[in-house]
Amino acid sequence: MSIEREIGKRLGNLRESLESEGIDAILLSNPNNIRYLTGKETGRVLISRESSVIWVRELYLELYSFSPEFDVRADEEDAVRHYIKDSNIKKLAVENLLVSLYERRKEELGIELVPTNTVERLRAVKSDYELELLRNSASIAKKGMEKAYEIIKDGTNELDAVADIEYVIRKAGSETPPFMDGMLLASGPDGADIHARARMKKVMATDLVVVDLGARVDGYYSDMTRTIPVGEPNPLAADILEFIENLQAEAIDRIHPGVRAGDIHDFVSKEIENRGYKFYHSTGHGIGLDVHELPNIGPKSEDALEPGMAFTIEPGIYIPGKFGVRFEDTLSMKKNKIETLTG
Amino acid sequence: MSIEREIGKRLGNLRESLESEGIDAILLSNPNNIRYLTGKETGRVLISRESSVIWVRELYLELYSFSPEFDVRADEEDAVRHYIKDSNIKKLAVENLLVSLYERRKEELGIELVPTNTVERLRAVKSDYELELLRNSASIAKKGMEKAYEIIKDGTNELDAVADIEYVIRKAGSETPPFMDGMLLASGPDGADIHARARMKKVMATDLVVVDLGARVDGYYSDMTRTIPVGEPNPLAADILEFIENLQAEAIDRIHPGVRAGDIHDFVSKEIENRGYKFYHSTGHGIGLDVHELPNIGPKSEDALEPGMAFTIEPGIYIPGKFGVRFEDTLSMKKNKIETLTG
Lengths: 343, 343
Fold this sequence. Notes:
The structure is a homodimer of 343-residue chains.
Chain A: H1 3-21, E1 25-28, H2 31-38, E2 44-48, E3 52-56, H3 58-63, E4 71-74, H4 79-86, E5 91-94, H5 99-109, E6 112-115, H6 118-124, H7 128-151, H8 158-171, E7 184-187, E8 208-217, E9 220-229, H9 235-253, E10 259-260, H10 261-274, E11 284-286, E12 293-297, E13 304-305, E14 310-313, E15 316-319, E16 323-326, E17 329-334, E18 337-340
Helix pairs in contact in A: 7-8
């Protein structure tokens, strides 16, 4: 399917959502929501039940061509306000903006604003076109991970390893480095710190090394984690490695169309607690144009996992002073089948 | 100066600000604001006139040691609410949060919230300790740019170049890749698109190549842009290259303690307009723990540029279908003197 037809379909789905929520129109400013609906990452976009308008800076009027469904206009002061007034829009949805921007919009537009995550919810369900991009992205992440297994040895400097692995990921065609702050690589006791970043420090023979990386292709992220033992792991480490790998597989086994994401998280969390540890983060997250998007697979999440969704499952145990263990894959659900994109 | 003494000074400055704004306390959740005030990037932090409390997840109680100024507690549900109630805090400042989080906090805490950018304003003025980190960060960025000049030739693939340059930046000790989406490298007509990213495409002998990169050291970013002609630039390109380089120098010459940032922007913008073009972005931005922070050096900015501030100056001209030209440096102001960190 071409991106043009994709966009047509997405706009149709959005209009259905707006109608069912009783909303007249939605004004978008989140670049990834705009990218999802227009194919570009700039401007302000208003989708009403009848029309799709994008206001862009003069430069982009010349540079970009938009899908014919869009009425493309110059982004001048008050342009959006005038349009909304003229089209008699009464109830306008906006994204989850920063308070300051939200207040400014409210004042500027002088109309009721309804914060909504409609576009984010639509984005959670991927088309075949999107799943193919996720697959391509995942295949680059896997190349990076192969490199990690190859170079992580007794004496490897963490930062050097990260430079080498990110190099492979970029050369393989990732359009950005893995994630905002780069990939994560934490050896030995640093692995117990979820926030730890690679530093000028040598990996040791007795270490477990947590490696969390991804790639980006045509906007779509992938995300995977492996915990790599440098030498023969000690009995506790070997035990926890096996436990977490198995737990990940069991959690994935429990996923079926319609399952409540919070239930998957509760299962993982309880298993880790039964083992005598605490689970310090969410079981997983949706993935696509953002590394973290809907569905939320964490405590109390009421999100249902549905066919077409792409998400990670990433149980972990972190033992201060000792090590951390996490395994993570990017998965997608197709009908009743789970595909492991990073497997 | 040690980071401990830095933190003590920062807390003192923050308390002065709170007092002058008539605010009882500030509740922080922005990781970079928390890092600025605690040295770590986790938890929720409340600074009142009398006390500094940080609530962290159990894992971090074990993992991290905080500055002795902090009362470190486990982040349990309602912990913050109870503390605020018990300490009789009536007027609580919060950061510029997402609307959803803001509403949740208001409901959860049941007290007046005042959005403020106090911490961001304090962060705009750097100490000698911070300026030294910025200098180290800039010196890594310069190494990346040297690599760019070395490898950009007729026939170089854009994505390969980016992989090579980011590799140099990482190897030199940058703790993250340059910026969230990696460095920017755009050749020929792509240079006219401010949003363009490197892609599988060969640089040509007649191209100008816009290269925008940086590094990060102990949290501090640097940011620099050069426009590199591959061969002999055509007369128009040569002209604009010279014009923008000179304009950047002239803009920097106009900076002195107390100058209104909006005036610097107006100067740059008018010069570009007099030349027959439009200026499509801001003249610059503060830089530190965020790539973009205060001061704002854009249209209508009332921010004053003051000694201790670190910021970029980056004029540019973008000609659709032809090329883009931008030069950018990270600068700092010390008394009356401007230091070019990336020069």
